[in-house]
């Protein structure tokens, strides 16, 4: 899987841009706030329909314009694929695959598999459960269409149940309808829990050796799934906690409250780990994610690295760069020293200056 080209119009600080990528390492370098990350964001949006920053669509449109266009050309399994995305300020976005419009954005997932790694990914380790659920969901939605369907359906039912909990406060007769939503929530929720459990177990088996190498063999990292409720207990707990849900007017049981933990011998890294240990765990997680995606799709994902090299010491830079030699990588940085120092070969170098892209080799 290789991204061949990217075309932008009215996206962030790019009025117009057309650029091509090599099959190996592609370097985008320049000072901060010049537009390097915007290119990675556009690529990621084309793969997942979402910004890695959590930005809304209207925020990605160039100031003074009402719409933006992104076109990504991809080669996969010997065939060229094209993704077109039309972002609009006051209307839903339009998405087309190979010139054919799709009705639901979720249909795009899996067309191109990307792994995004930025300094903000440290939040997966040290921030709240929402960041870890987001990581799990974004990866699984790219890999598993059934999971994507179950997650979308679960969230719809969850919203319906939460709305009903609020309405029951004004009309107690609506209590008779709560079981309809509970049955559906349990059905989709059990499937989500099962898939998440398998995903984290598979990821855990890969991360141990990676983390050992990154830590110089001094530490062993364990990741564990922490479901809010088990598959067997889901239905019973929904019923048992209904009174509390009615008081709080929200559903407090289900995979929308799941978490995962990262621990070493000293304990939970989020609480007891140093910044260096947290950073190493985040890097190990991303490298394990790459391995898992390779195994699942039997192809290489595209790796997007956003200014992460400056966050790592020389040894970890070297381990990261040499472990991705066979993957198309698009990396942003402020200078080329990391590549020179680590003797990394690269295909293309682009300098980014105030939204202008200049090819340097």
What would you say this structure looks like, in words?
With 361 residues, this protein is an alpha/beta fold. The chain has 2 domains: 1-113 and 300-361, 3-Layer(aba) Sandwich (Rossmann fold), CATH 3.40.50; 121-298, RecF/RecN/SMC, N-terminal domain (Glutathione S-transferase Yfyf (Class Pi), Chain A, domain 2), CATH 1.20.1050.90. It is built from 11 helices and 15 strands. It has helices spanning 36-48, 122-126, 129-143, 145-168, 178-214, 234-240, 242-248, 269-272, 275-297, 314-323, 337-341; strands at residues 2-11, 14-20, 25-29, 67-76, 79-88, 94-97, 100-101, 114-117, 222-226, 259-264, 267-268, 302-306, 329-333, 348-353, 356-359. The protein has a 6-stranded antiparallel sheet with strand order 2-1-4-5-6-7, covered by helices on one side. A hairpin with a 2-residue loop joins strand 6 (94-97) and strand 7. The longest helix has 37 residues, at 178-214. The relative contact order is 0.17. The model has no long low-confidence stretch (mean pLDDT 90).
